[in-house]
Each structure stands twice: as C-alpha cells, then as structure tokens.
Amino acid sequence: MxxxxxxxxxxxxxxxxxxxxxxxLAGANRMAEGFNRMCGDKITIFVEVEGxxxxxxxxxxxxxxxxxxxxSLLTGAVKGKTRAEAETLxxxxxxxxxxxxxPGVDFGKLAVFAGVSEYPARVKxxxxxxxxxxxxxxxxxxxxxxxxxx
Amino acid sequence: xxxxxxxxxxxxxxxxxxxxxxxxxxxxxxxxxxxxxQPVAYLDNAATTQKPQAVIDAxxxxxxxxCSNIHRSVHRLGERATExxxxxxxxxxxxxxxxxxxxxxxxxxxxxxxxxxxxxxxxRLAAGDEVLITGLEHHxxxxxxxxxxxxxxxxxxxxxxxxxxxxxLDAYRGLxxxxxxxxxFAHISNALGTVNPIEEMIxxxxxxxxxxxxxxxxxxxxxxxxxxxxDCEFYAISGHKMYGPTGIGALYGKEKWLERLPPWQGGGDxxxxxxxxxxxxxxxxYKFEAGTPNIAGTIGLGAACDYLQALGRERIARYxxxxxxxxxxxxxxxxxxxxxxxxxxxxxxxxxxxxxxxxHDVGTVLDSLGVAVRAGHHCAQPVMDRFAIPATTRASLGLxxxxxxxxxxxxxxxxxxxxxR
Lengths: 150, 421
Description:
The complex is a heterodimer of chains A (150) and B (421). Chain A has 150 residues and is of the alpha+beta class. Chain A has helices at 2-7, 10-17, 65-78, 83-97, 123-138; strands at 30-36, 41-50, 53-62, 147-148. A four-stranded mixed beta sheet of chain A has the order 3-2-1-4, covered by helices on one side. In chain A, helix 2 (10-17) packs across helix 3, helix 3 (65-78) runs parallel beside helix 5 and helix 4 packs antiparallel against helix 5 (123-138). The radius of gyration of chain A is 14 Å and the shape is globular. The model of chain A has no long low-confidence stretch (mean pLDDT 90). Chain B has two domains: 19-48 and 312-419, Aspartate Aminotransferase, domain 1 (Alpha-Beta Complex), CATH 3.90.1150; 55-310, Type I PLP-dependent aspartate aminotransferase-like (Major domain) (Aspartate Aminotransferase, domain 2), CATH 3.40.640.10. Chain B is 41% helix and 16% strand. Chain B has helices at residues 2-17, 21-25, 53-66, 76-96, 110-120, 143-152, 169-175, 198-207, 227-230, 255-260, 295-311, 313-332, 359-368, 381-386, 403-419, and strands at 34-35, 38-39, 41-42, 104-107, 130-134, 155-159, 180-186, 212-215, 234-238, 249-253, 271-274, 279-281, 337-339, 349-354, 371-372, 374-376, 392-396. A seven-stranded mixed beta sheet of chain B has the order 4-10-9-8-7-5-6, with helices on both faces. A four-stranded antiparallel beta sheet of chain B has the order 13-14-17-16, with helices on one face. In chain B, helix 8 links the parallel strand 7 (180-186) and strand 8. Chain B starts with a helix and ends with a helix. The model of chain B is unreliable at 1-16 (pLDDT under 50). At the A-B interface, helix 1 and helix 2 of A face helix 13 of B.
C-alpha cells in the first residue's frame, strides 16, 4: 500500500483532477497527437515556439490520472525552456520513470513521478505527453504525425 | 445401524452435489501465492484462466515420458504420443458433443479457428456478397472477416447492440438475406458478458440458408456445450480460457462443411501424397492440420476437458451464476460505479466504469490490494465505441472464485472512489 501512495501522490491527484494549461493554445505553431492504444489514452499537445524558446504549451485529451497529471506538469516544466533543454528534460524524465534517474538532476515537481518506476505497466501513461511533445518539437511542419506509445 | 447408514448416504449425496469451492481452489497451485500479503484474487479469467495441477501434470508427463512426434513414428514413443494426441481429440469431441472426431480440428486458439474458416471461405465469397457479424464481437471475429471481404469484394455487415449490450435481434434478422454467405458471432461477449441467444440466431440464419460460425472462446469455460443441438456449422474454442494451456484450441466444423472448404495451410501431415505436379490432401481433420502440432498443448487441452467434465459443467455454470448475481448486486452498491453490459442473460463478466476515474487507475489500485482485473478495451473497441467510453474495468469470474474475493473487489472499488474523489 505504501507503494501505491508513492504512485498517487497528492500533487499527481491534484493535477489529474485540475489539469493546468488544459485546452487549445491560440498562439500555437506546433501541434502533435499522442495515443496509447492499450488503454485508449489520447492527448493533443499545442506548442508555441518562438525562435528556439518553448514559449507556451497547452494540452487537451483524456486519460488516466498518471497521464493527465504528467501532461499537466509537463506544460509547467518546459515553459520558457529552449528546445534542447526540453528534450533533455524528456530524457531525464524517461530515466526517472524507468527507475534509472540521472544523478544530480533537479526534477523539481516532476520528482513526484519517481513512484511510476515501481509500476512498469504505467510507464507509458507517464511518458505519453512527453513523447507527444517530442513529436511536436521535432516537426518542422505545423502539424506532426500522431505518435503512439504502443 | 440402518438409520445411521442411511444418514451417511444422504450426507454423501449432499456432498457430491454441493460445490466445494475451497476444494476446487486447492487444484490450482497459482492461487496459493500472495500479492501484497494477500492471496491473489484472480478476476481476469476472460483474459486467461489459471491451470489445475492435472493440466500441468499432463504437460510435464508428456515432456518427461512420452515426447515424440505424432503420426509418423514406428517406435513406441511415437505411438504413445500419437495415441494421447488422438485421445485428446476424442475428449474435445465429447466436450462439444460433436458427431465425429473428424469434425475436430486442432488450432492455436479461437482466433486461429476463425481465421481458418474466414480464409478458407474466400473461395465462396464474391463481390457484393455479405458476411454478417454483430456489434459485440472481439477483434478476432471482426478482422479475419474484414480481410476476407477486402480480398473478395464482399461486404461486412454488423447487427447493432441495444443499450443493455444485447444484439438487436430484429436488426440481425433484417440483415440476413440472399447475399449473406456466412454469419459469425460470439456465444458470450468477452467485454460485456452478454450470452447471445445463439439457438435463435442459428435458426434464423438457417432459415435463410446461411451457415453459422460461433466464437465460443468465452462460453467453453462457463456453459455445457452441444454443437449438435446448436446445429451451428462451426464452433471455435481456446484451451487457455478453459483452464488448459495457451497456444492450443479447437475448431469444430460439420463434416460436410470441412469437406467443402479448401485447406488453408500447406505442409506435412495435411497431405496424402505429394509430387511436383499434384498433391492430394489428407482426410479430415488432418487436411487442416499442417505441420507438427502443439502436441503437449493438445494433451493438456484434453486434460482440461477431463477436469471440467469431472467437476460437472452444469454445476460450474450454476455456481458461477450465483457468484455473478452476488457480484452484480455488490458492485451496483459502489458509489459512482456504472455497469457496462446489463443483458438479461449474462455469464462470467462484470464490466464497469467508475465516475471520474480511468480504468487503468482502478486496475492499479486493485492490484495493490492483490485483486487482478483487466482495464482497457478488451480487444473489442467497437463495443467501447457503442457505449461511448474509451475503456472499462472488467472483473471476470472463474470456477475457483469466491464471494470473499468479490467482497475484496468491492472494498477496493470503494477505496478507489475515496482516493480520486
């Protein structure tokens, strides 16, 4: 049961019930869709990139508590970062949820996802938004192909 | 003395007719393990079932004592293997009450059984013909027909479901017509638990001269089966859903239909003679069994048939019905829970949503309490679409489940409601 508390921390429950930056982003010039076919989770990420800076990120979609909270916290974490910094954060986040956190990295609020590593079946839920962001940033065209974590 | 012995006699009869679930549980070694300090409450039986020791022993015995190829060896091991393999065919014949062992084809599972028919049936389909299925099918009874339709220009028709998750029988009858070349439907829905009125559906199809394939994957573990009484042309089952091994199943086909259909895979054992100019096919059922089959799995499937027959399939069905009724009532009392699939006739499945909570979160919380359920679309995305939901949580029952396990499920769901409120 203690492990379950590690997974569903207050911050995660809070963001899953009241996701931040939820809804379309008027100034978005990058967009990507992500699916987790196993559970039907669906997410759309809207990004406003100015030069090399991720100026703003929004998302919409439906999913489990982990995937919704992850998307919500992602929007706050990457805002104002350079594209390269956002990609590095994705890499670090992935290492965190798969149980091999990069030493010395300050995860800030994202540290609440450390508990996911005890639940291999839920890693895809936690990383769906990040894969989708990656796809949006990688796209030169305004719209990227849908990504899937399956 | 006379009174005493008559008393013992009565007790014996009662013991024989009562369903002793604790004794049944003792046959399943996996159920002895604990998860999070509690005995595992395995409620994912529609995905796969646990195996009784008798099935495990049959597999071990084959590999330890009798391992050999079948139908081709003159040595004693080969004879023993062949004998056991064919004995398993006899057991499956009895299990389904088929007329002859020639009508039992061993396949990997229900999926392969349906693919066999759908692929062999292509020779009987042409542009404008129709294949009729229903809205509650598993992907395995949709995609093989889509492939057959794509290859031949035939059209796939779908009989819709009502709000309770039952097939709309009037719509089904209306869709049967002179263009319909075959109809295929599940006996029991894996996602909703609906028991289709297949006797009626088969009669309606036959009235139009349409042959019928029944997907029996979910029915085999729950109901006594009699393909001759049903009169369907094909009936497919999976070993692993009826307490047998994975990777083995059986397709029943009426002899005249199996004779009519061309083989679907070529190879050893399915031929009578081969030259580079011409090959003649083996007799039934070997015509459809190319290559060395899953011999151990087949023998294990036979052991599973024996196990279910010995326990009594009517008794199992009765016990599971009381369990389902108990679980239904219990879950309906959980705040925020909505049952998905409320057919009048159901078996084995409690599929539901929890207000504001994704099934994956439900599944994870239940897992932490040692309760194993399935969360997802259950390989039946059109069913989820019908109810406008991405997924459900599904608790599916087996012959070893208990009321206490369902109590733990309900308690876990109340906890889910509190956590995500």
